[in-house]
Amino acid sequence: MIGRARTRRKINGRTTRWVRRFRAIGSALSHWWRRSLQLRVVVSTMALSLVVILALGFALTNQLTARMLEAKLAAAVQQLDSARQTVQRELAGAGDTTSRQGRINSARSALNWQVDNEQSTGGAGLWTPVLIAADPEATQGLTTSGAVEQIPESLRDYVRQGQVSYMYSTVPASETSVVSALIMGTPTASDIPGLELYLVFPLESEARSLSLMRGTVLTGSAVLLVLLTAISLLVARQVVIPVRSASRIAARFAEGRLKERMPVRGEDDMARLAMSFNEMAESLSRQITQLEEFGNLQKRFTSDVSHELRTPLTTVRMAADVIYDSRDELDPMLERSAELMMRELDRFESLLADLLEISRHDAGVAELSAEQIDVRSCVHAALSTVQRLATDASIPLIVDIPDDPIIAEVDPRRVERVVRNLLANAIDHSEGNPVLLRMRADNDTLAVLVRDWGVGLKAGEEKLVFNRFWRSDPSRVRRSGGTGLGLAISVEDARLHNGRLDAWGERGYGSVFRLALPLTRGRRVTTSPLPLKPDPEDMDMPVIAPATEPSTKSEVEIMLDPMESSAVFTPDEVTDSRPSRDQEDAGWRAQ
């Protein structure tokens, strides 16, 4: 039993190795087939040529075989008629004193003499005579002369009925081989009743001729197939080489080498293709250059304006602070104007700061001050910042953060800004519905997901939402007083971490924003512990039960998952619930 098991394991191991090799070969051939136009053209030409050659060769062979057998049959009919006359003449000239067997043998000898006579063979070739006559006195009821065992019984049935018939059969050529033969039979008009004459025509020469013909056709077909393959290879190369050249030049053009052009040779279709490609490349190069110059000019203008506005804004801020501090001494209308001026100055300063941040990203001078921290502290800081905004809008915040620390090498200021922008954007578009913040991490990546059940996004807007100053509905008023640059800056902050910021939305089901960052600086995000698109069962808005008893924190707890902690911040929470820095460093989590 042990020996059988070892043998079975060896066989299975060898079979597995062979299967893997065949799969690898098949995969390589499949890859080559998909990527090589030249291979597909050559193989297709070979396959079609092979089918045509086989069809023509088969038809030609059948036609020549039929013609050869028709000629053989016509000559055999003439030879059979001549042999019948010879037999009848020999039997009529023999005396009655000779026995029946002797007379039949004498007639067969005359036929053999005709076979040996080169002038009488004609186009039928060599043949062998067989004579058969019914004889009640004989042992088997027959008087025969010749190889009677070569005559099929079915052919004798036709001849006994008085018909001249023929049949193709096989006869022994030697002790170990057989050969095809044409056997013809005819009744005779002699004084021996029921005498049958058969001539056996071996088809050895015809078989040799057909074999030679098939070999010639096969050789010619192989040579023709090779020539057609070479021709198709040459033609395919003439077509594929310019296409490959265009592909390489297009790839280099896409890499930014805008001076790449295709060589133009001749005036054929490929030359016109090269000229058209070069004209397209020249046009694209001019447009790209113009756009780059315009973009650089725009970035420089934004940067210059942002820097130039800082000095007058500082002066205006100082004057506004003086007026605002003395607002109690002013009449009510001037006091209200001072408050409005301070509010708009705050918004203007925020816009200017965002413009400066965007200009740093555009100039490529934005720096990442990464450090290993518990990223939950950044999320809690962002929650504390937007808490008053959610309270004013009466929007519950559903927080779902793990209890265990999530340590990552990130820039805390930028991560907090991204989460804050996502939360503020969700509150602006939630239509009074809850906003969910969820955080997860795996071995390589952390993800922060912010979802609202508001108006949602139209198809295609998930890409536009990160454009600068883009708004889905221009008539909508921002509760957060944003500048329109928050999501654009957030995308740049995510890219600075080698991370991703993605969006999903659907009308009537809200929108989802997911920030995915690598846990280690320098690595890239390939997967995410949180899916971007919600599952069908999670599309509906969660139901939040109201608090049954008043509390100093005014919180309502819900369970999103029995194994996970979560909390809901209701609008009644006081602003003093912001955690301290010590609480954040200790992994504080709101409950």
TrEMBL record:
Can you tell me where the transmembrane regions are? 37-60
Localization in the cell: Cell membrane
Cross-referenced CDD domains, in alphabetical order?
A: HAMP, HisKA
The reaction(s) catalysed by this protein are:
ATP + protein L-histidine = ADP + protein N-phospho-L-histidine
Pfam families on file:
HAMP, HATPase_c, HisKA
UniProt-annotated stretches for the region Disordered: 526-552, 565-591
Under the GO molecular function aspect, what terms does this record hold? ATP binding; phosphorelay sensor kinase activity
Q: EC number(s) for this protein?
A: 2.7.13.3
Biased-composition ranges for Basic and acidic residues?
A: 575-591
* Every Histidine kinase domain range: 304-521
Taking the first listed entry, what is the main subcellular location of this protein, grouped into a coarse class? membrane
Q: Which residues form a coiled coil?
A: none
Q: Give any Gene Ontology cellular component.
A: plasma membrane
Q: Which residues form the HAMP domain?
A: 237-289
Q: Which SMART domains match?
A: HAMP, HATPase_c, HisKA
Q: What PANTHER family does the entry give? A: HYBRID SIGNAL TRANSDUCTION HISTIDINE KINASE C, TWO-COMPONENT HISTIDINE KINASE
| Protein's name in the database | Sensor histidine kinase MtrB
Which lineage ranks, top first, belong to the organism behind this chain?
Bacteria, Bacillati, Actinomycetota, Actinomycetes, Mycobacteriales
